[in-house]
Structure formats: structure tokens, C-alpha cells
Amino acid sequence: MDRRRFISTVAAGIAAPFAGVACAGVQGGAKPVRGGYGPLRPVRDLRDGEVRLHLPDGFAYRSFSAAGDEFSDGSRVPGRHDGMAAFTGQDGSAVLVRNHEVNGPVGAFGDRADAYDPMAGGGTSTLRVTRHGEVLRSAPSLNGTMMNCSGGPMAWGAWVSCEETVNGPDVGDDSSGGDNTRLTMKHGYLFEVPVDGTATRRPIRSAGRFPHESAAFDPATGAIYLTEDNFGFPSGFYRYLPPKHPVQAGRLLDGGRLQMLAVKGAKRKDLSAGQRPGTTYATRWVDIDDPDPAFTGRPANDEAVQAVGRQGRAEGAAIFSRLEGAVHHQGTVYFVSTQGGDTSPDDPPPSGFGDGRGQVWAYETGGGRLRLVYESPRSSVLDLPDNVTVSARGTLVLCEDGDDGNYLRGLTGSGRIFDFCRLEPIPGDPGAEFAGSTFGPGGHTLYVNIQAKHGTSIAIWGPWERGLF
Predict the structure, then answer these.
(1) Which parts form a coiled-coil structure per UniProt (predicted)?
(2) Cα Rg for the chain, rounded, in angstroms?
(3) pLDDT at position 340, please?
């Protein structure tokens, strides 16, 4: 297949699961609704018979490409499976591009001679799988990067992977205790991974060096909307304006302009605090003059990680708490504030910046209106949402990163929230969570990752027509 036809097919594959989506109808004032598909029950994995998920009746799943498994070339699959997107493959298969959020100078997976930084253990893998989770081919597609958390699918046939760190030999060690002097390159950038090959490993420096989380592409303008997950400090909502529309260029070009969202008439508006769903704000954008700052004297990591965001806030940019998942649909970017909202009387405040259990925001790319879609009242309803995608019926699929018993939850177009899947607790690994949810071609399969000490990817299928996805 020639590249032009391939890109056209891939673009159609991205759009297919979202056909007919009416997610713009998601409204505030959501009321908890139990059982979008009925009660959850333990279901055995078709790969090995182990119980990993609790699902409604009629649903099945298979895990695949776990940490430590072999790629098709014989190298080993790294752990920390995170953000992911599905594209249309040949003969009804799906092509998955998957992040690995590995931190520290642990050495690159795959061929170190090709790595961006031979000492960094993160990156992406690309897999071609059936709709029932059988791996047809798999390989490393970006290596030598670090803390590749999430990113986003791009309409020209690529995945943009985001580094959630500013580690490098020019800054002090982060809280994990890794020795940054062992790194050979600066980190904290976007990297493009073509679906039909491997990455060039050239960072998009003009899109900023900060703890990136997700990237959502707006086809109308060519802008890339970016979230920031600055765990212990305020976070911002950004957009990168490339020098040429990426669809016309066939790739994401460096040399553009980075901006940060501000609320009109309210400098440094704190949107991390609790407020009523449905609240709207008029917005503006402020320029970041130095998106890729040069550090001298190895500043502390806590200082370096705020260098870009402080520039925006000095110009009045809004304050959020831990912005993570983001998805674009029909001119609106939906994004998640993991710890946004008021402190719940039923829950202790989580660690890090922000005392709430999660918010979902919507930004209209045309008119610039920002709206609070939903705010969690307590962890039993929604607990620290992270990655997000959209179903064919306009329902947001939220991956939880909570304290215990994480769920995949749905937030419908009418503002109802429901449980779809619960993660079976993993002994000795209380931090296990869902990540990287993405619907495959035609919406038959929901692919999702379990990020854990021994993570894996999972394919879920069943009677979607019976419920709200």
C-alpha cells in the first residue's frame, strides 16, 4: 500500500469508532447511574484463565503483549503500559501504538543504537492485533525516551507520544531518585511515531519542555492541544501552533508557537477548585516566549518542571490540577483534571496538587468557550480519572487512577456516569490502574492497558449495543 493511500485509510480508521458521536451534548449536573450494562462479575482471561477484570454479562477479553513478553524481533516488551491509540490495519486487524511510561536511567529497550537516549527506558511499541487480542506482529517504534505517559492519534497517520518529565543531565534528579547525570539527552518533549514505521526520534522542542500528558489534534486549524500533569504544582492547558498544517506537511513540524489558556477578565483563574458543572468561561491565549528553556547550574527538578508553566501564569494563564487525558471530537477538546474539585467529605485529599476526585472539561476550539462538564462528588462515583476516549454513542470512557479498585467508567451524553469494568486487585501492586483505552476499527473491540509492575494490554468485546457505549 502506498503511503498516501495508507494515510487515508488510517485517518478513516481513527474516525470510524467516533462516527455519529454526539459528545458535545454532555451536560453538567451528572447523576450517578449504576449498571450501564448491568452488574459486574469476575471474568476469566481467555489467554490464561486468570481473573483480571470484572465485566457485565456477555463480555469477554484476552490479555496480550505483557511486560517481559517477546516482540516479533525477539527483544523484550517493556513495562508501564500507558497511553495508546488504535488505527485500521489490514484484513480487519487493528494497529496499536502504545506508550511505555518508564522512568530513570535504566537503559533503552530494543536496539540501543537507534535510541534517542541510550540510557532512557521509555518509548512506544507498535502492534498489529486481531479484534480478539491475538498479536500478529509487534516491534519497538520509539526508544530512548522517558516517562511516555499519553499522547494522541493524528489524522495524517501518526501517534504523538508525550514525555511527562523534564529529566536530563542539565537538571537535578527527580523524586524517583534516578541519577540524571547518567542521561545523555534532555527530556520533556513530544515525539511523532508514524503508524507505518518507526520514529525519527527528533523532539518537537517548540511544543515545550514540561511534563506533557496528552495531545489532541484539531483538524480545522492544525493546532495540537496539550495537557500538563505537574503532580505537585499547578498545571496548564496548552496549544501548539505548528508552522504548517500537519496534514498538509504530512508530519508535525518544529518551529511553531506554544500558548497557554487563560480566562478572560480573571488573571491566573484557579480552576482546580470545586465549582458547579455547566459553569462556562470565555478564554484567551497567552504566548510562551521560551518553550524550551536552557538551564544552567543544574536547577532542582522541582524548579525546572515549572519553568514553562510559570511563564504562562505570569501572563495570567489559568490554573488546573493535574491535567491528563484529552480527546478531540467535532470541534471540542474534552480533557480531564485528575485531582480537580472540592475535597470530598467521604475521602481524604489525595497527595499532590489538588484536593478533589476529578473534573472533566470541554474546550470549544472555534469559539473559545471552556465548560466544566462534570465534577466527581466522591471516589465511589469517580476516582481520579486519567486517560479518556470516546465511544460510538458519544460516551466518554474514563480510566481511573484511584487508590483502590480502579474502574473504567462511562460518562454519557445526558450526563450519567456508570461503571463498565473493574480491575481485579493485584496482590502486592496497589498502584495498578487502567490506561490507554481506545476503540478499534468499527467499534468491535475496546483495547485498554493495565499499568502495573507487570503490565499488559487487553482486548474487550461483547454486546455494546445493549448499553451506553
Answers:
(1) none
(2) 20
(3) 97
Give me the domain span that covers residue 284: 3-466
Hey, what's the cell of 250? Answer: 504530512
Asked whether the beta carbons of 172 and 298 are under 8 A apart, the reply is yes
* Edge-to-edge strand list for the sheet holding 94-100: 81-88, 94-100, 122-129, 135-145
* pLDDT for residue 393: 82
DSSP string for residues in 51-114: EEEEE-TT-EEEEES-TTPBPTTSPBPPS-EEEEEEEE-GGG-EEEEEEE---SS---SS-GGG
Q: What is the CATH number of the domain that holds 452?
A: 2.120.10.30
Report, as ranges of residue numbers, the positions in the chain whose pLDDT lies below 70: 1-35
Per the CB < 8 A criterion, the answer to whether 138 and 125 are in contact is yes
Q: Which amino acid belongs to residue 411?
A: L
CB atoms within 10 A of CB 28: 17
For residue 14, how many C-alpha atoms fall within 13 Å in the half-sphere facing its CB? 23
The span from the CA of 363 to the CA of 386, in Å, is: 17
d(CA 439, CA 446): 4
Number of domains in the chain: 1
Q: What is the DSSP letter of 35?
A: -
Query: Bridge partners of 328?
Result: 333
pLDDT at 447: 98
Q: Which backbone phi and psi does 449 adopt, to 5 degrees?
A: -110, 150
Q: Which three cell numbers mark 379?
A: 471516589
Take residue 373 and report the three cell numbers written for it: 462538564
Beta carbons of 168 and 187 less than 8 angstroms apart = yes
DSSP string, 198-264: ------BGGG-SSBEEEEEE-TTT--EEEEE--TTS-B-EEEEE-SS-HHHHTSPPSS-EEEEEEET
pLDDT > 70 in the chain, percent: 92
Nearest partner of 127 among 173, 187, 195, judged by Cα: 195
- CA atoms of 207 and 152, how far apart (whole Å): 14
Q: Say what the pLDDT of residue 204 is.
A: 98
C-alpha pair distances (Å), 446 with each of 173, 389, 462: 37, 10, 9
Return the C-alpha cell found at 454. 507487570
Per 3-state DSSP, what percentage of the chain is helix, strand, and coil (rounded to 5)? 10, 40, 50
Alpha-carbon gap, residue 16 to 11, rounded angstroms: 9
How many whole angstroms separate alpha carbon 423 and alpha carbon 405? 6
Cα angle: 400, vertex 403, 409; to 5 degrees: 25
What integer pLDDT is reported at residue 292 of this predicted model? 98
